[in-house]
Amino acid sequence: MLTIDQLSLQLPLYASWWKRDWATCLDEFSLTVFPGEVHAVVGASGAGKSLLAYAIMGLLPTPARLNGQLYYQGKPLNASRQRQLRGRELALIPQSLSALDPLVRTQRQVTWAAQRAGQPSAHAWHASQQALDHYQLDARAQQAYAHELSGGMARRVLTAMAHVSQAKLVIADEPSVGLDPHQRQRVLDALRELANQGKSVILITHHLRHALPIADRVTIMRDGKLVETAPACAFQDSGASLTNAYSQALWLALPDNAFATTAISRREQEAHVA
Amino acid sequence: MSQAQPRLRAAFSLGVTALLVMGLVASQWLLGDSPQQMQFDARLAPPSVDHWLGTDALGRELWARTLAGLALSFWVGCLAALLSTLIALSLAAIATLSARLDALVSLLIDTLLSVPHLILLMLIAFALGGGTQAVIIAVAVTHWPSLARVLRAELWQLRQAPYVRISRALGKSRWFVLHGHLLPHLIPHCLVGALLLFPHAILHEAALTFLGFGLSPSQPAIGVLLADAMRYLSGGYWWLGVFPGLGLLLMVLGFERLSSHLRRAL
Amino acid sequence: MRLIAPIAKRVARLALVLTCVALVSYGLMMASPIDPVDAYLGPQMAQVSPEQRALIAQRWGFDESVAVQFGHWLRQLVSGDLGWSHVYNQPVSEVIAQRFQRSIALLGSAWLISALVGFSLGVVAGAKEGSKLDNIISTYAFITASTPAFWLAILAVLLFSVTLGWTPTCCAGPAGALNQEVTLATRLHHLLLPVATLALLGIASITLHTRTRMLELMRSDVATHAFAQGASRLDVAWRHGLRHASVPAITLAFASLGELFGGSILIEQVFAYPGLGQATVAAGLRSDVPLLLGIALFTALFVSVGNMIADSLYGVIDPRIKASGL
């Protein structure tokens, strides 16, 4: 479905009064996502996960240096194709709940998403209704403004907006942040269900534990670099089948594994905490 | 150009403005009394090689008078903006002392903001009997409310800030808190605030003078020059009306640019 | 019911502010070094004996203490009497009413034009950030925001009235013509240039403000999300931008009534347009204290009501504030 080949990204950084440096945010990062799978991308804050999402969507801030190739369904995914496919084939469930327009009622926003995906307006209203019903958002929530929604409801509205576009590749950026276990489960289940319909889901999170139950494969990222891509089932017991020390340590440091930190060097601990 | 460093641009425009201001001040020294010198054989002369920007009805050189007017505006604007910032800072500080004082200051702000600036300026200039001092005081007294609002909000926020409360609880003196914690936050605000006030101060000074409430008609102020030009408009003496205003516009524009660059850099 | 309490609070505040305005402006008038009898007499100053001066002072109460005079003035004010204007030899309330009628045509049309045009230009510039159109609009707004109002008016007179002869140089109608004889077309012809000048100046602030709001929105999470849905810049500007920028623009339009009035004083002076602004200047220059006080109070009322509307609009339009009941 989507192949990322040696993607490097640099963003400008003002080092001093005169000089502009480039900070490397993604470093020769490669990844392949198949149809029908949930592919989790796990890494600490600042590992470049969100930027990866923006790079795939073509929504990076303007002074950015991008190298490497993206392929979508076998064909190169360049800026013009990204523009064409955005909202139709590619959908993003953003990290921040402030992505919902505070001045527009829920259902109208979902309808706009459907219209932007190319559906005729008469149909879009109906489709949005269906999508909202599907995510158990009742009539009150449909007529509500963003500030009247709970975190879980807002998250489901964002998911509904991705769903209504019928995109084949859905990128979910930290969808489980700030939700209680019950709500989190609902949101993650919804993503799994999208994959079960044959779509590809890229699940970006810093919670390895949340991702594992629904993910097929897991990619560990660190400082913009690929650490390891492994099937989700590799993360069990002592993680012996994981090839990289960092991903092993990450797995072993989970609460269920008794916070074992012996395997991590001091520097890596800091990196993880940070 | 748009890729350039914001701080670099700010430094550049600061340099250029400083140079121009220095030139303006130096020109006053070099000009001496030529803005007032009359040439009886060259009255209302149009712009030419001999009379760069033309002459007025008394045969005085317009370029010299415009330069003198700009310098006058600059000094009046400087003093007024400085005074205004001081008023804003002290009233913002007073407002943070107690809830009652705060209510009083915000009532004062509301009162001043509810009268159109120009009318308030006229009232104050009238009360002080006109003249340079009156203009400076009037402009200073009318322009502080917006800055005071910003500073007041900032001070309230700072007082609630954990590090300030901890510093107090640790028994640091009031002076230490003010000097160590509050001032470093307030000074950039004051600086930008004063710079933002400056162009407004100049424009209002010129307007007040133009209407006849400001600087005395014997001074070569821009407002005086333009009020003078009004009498010769229909006679086709266009240079009298165009150049002094153009000079004022360029000066205000320069300072607006400087302050917008500085705001972006800070 | 929920609406009544905040409105009552606002009106009470308005009354308080107006009282303060009265107090402050009266104090300023009393502080003036200009002798009220001289001001009353004007050029006839020299023709009057000391006895006559004393009589005048007695008749108008100039000889009483400031507190007594203020009390007297306040009592008159409450009963609706603003005093007597010696410049126009008419009650102050009549002068203001007549003059304001003429000014409102100038103010109202300039206000409407600057709000509408300023908002549209701001939306376009903000939506197309960095484009040639944006550069032109921003530069225009930046320059006019720094332009002295009266100078722009002088330039307009020079160009359109003196050089091209398209518009009259002065007044609200032909010199010498009686008010009733002037046709609507003539009136509009005389109004054209002052309105255009005033509007041209008013556009700048609303354009810059709206543009900033649009830029903020275009960089916000809302816009990024819309772009991710495949929206074009135009789509984002139209669907999200207009909503986000309109409330601040309307608010600014109401809040800038004072600025507009200040501009109208200068422009009426240049065009010799006999409105309230010109009366203000005349009252100030000829020390007509009652008229000056009356105008200060009247404009304060005008501006305060504008500010009040601006404050209330947020609560009416923005759903976030509506919900919290502010």
Automatic annotation (TrEMBL), chain B:
Major location (coarse): membrane
Membrane topology type: Multi-pass membrane protein
Cellular localization per UniProt: Cell membrane
SUPFAM superfamilies, per database record: MetI-like (SSF161098)
A Pfam cross-reference name: BPD_transp_1
GO cellular component, one term: plasma membrane
UniProt xrefs under PROSITE patterns: ABC_TM1
GO BP annotation list: transmembrane transport
Record's keyword annotation contains Transmembrane: yes
Domain ABC transmembrane type-1: 70-259
Entry's transmembrane regions: 12-31, 72-95, 176-198, 236-255
Alphabetically ordered keywords of this record: Cell membrane, Membrane, Transmembrane, Transmembrane helix, Transport
Keyword Transmembrane: yes
Similarity annotation: Belongs to the binding-protein-dependent transport system permease family.
Record protein name field: Binding-protein-dependent transport systems inner membrane component
Organism name: Vreelandella titanicae BH1
